[in-house]
Amino acid sequence: MTSAVSNNAKLFLAWYLTHLGTSPLKTKACTSGLLSGLQELTAQKLSGVKKVDKRVIQMAAYGLLISGPLNHFLYEIMNKIFAGKTGKGVKIGQLLFSNLVISPVMNSVYLTAMAILAGVRSSAQLKANIKNGLLPMQKISWVVSPISMTLAQNFLPPSTWVPFFNLIAFVFGTYMNTMIKRRRLREAQEAAKKQ
User: Fold this and answer.
1) Which among 39, 14, 29 has a CA at the least distance from the CA of 63?
2) Residues with Cβ < 8 Å from 170, sequence gap 6 or more?
3) Is 134 exposed, middle or buried (0-12, 13-18, 19+ CB in 10 A)?
4) How far apart are CA 116 and CA 118, in angstroms?
5) Closest listed residue to residue 168, CA positions, set 66, 35, 71, 22
6) CB of 133 closer than 8 Å to CB of 111
7) 177 near 39, Cβ under 8 Å?
8) At 85, is the secondary structure helix, strand, or coil?
9) What digits encode the pLDDT tens for the residues 25-57?
10) CA-wise closest residue to 115 among 124, 125, 103
11) pLDDT tens-digit profile of 176-193?
């Protein structure tokens, strides 16, 4: 049984890497969509939510149509800037670019998209949402990103970085999302008891 699973995993990995090489944008978008939807579904289940809601589909669409393509293009820009260059300075430059350009852009887009999904429509509210949420998100990114970037730089080809970062975001995002959902459920239960 283990051998069959191992062979299937190798076949899937070969298939995935082939598609990543031949259709990188589509593959990264699909990966992001799948992981974003799965993250929301997992968080809902782990938090004890009784009924799975439309947010699973919304998050999958966000990953497929926004996060995956944007991540792909931002890392393509970074890879072009540092193409053909090697050494510690390049690794530090990539780390800085990732933390000071890619991360704030991705986090701002995420905050905007989540606010729109929550019903926010005015530009003033969207700006306030980014103003209030960006720094806390960046603080988490500034802890996680250097570790994940260093791992990627040392062990992965650049073409696989975006899916790798998506996987890391899936793990941390699921944890954070689950904790937030559990807190909201507790608050709702406590409010219901007071009434």
Assistant:
1) 29
2) 35, 36, 38, 39
3) middle
4) 5
5) 35
6) yes
7) yes
8) coil
9) 999 999 999 999 999 999 999 988 888 889 999
10) 125
11) 888 888 887 888 888 888
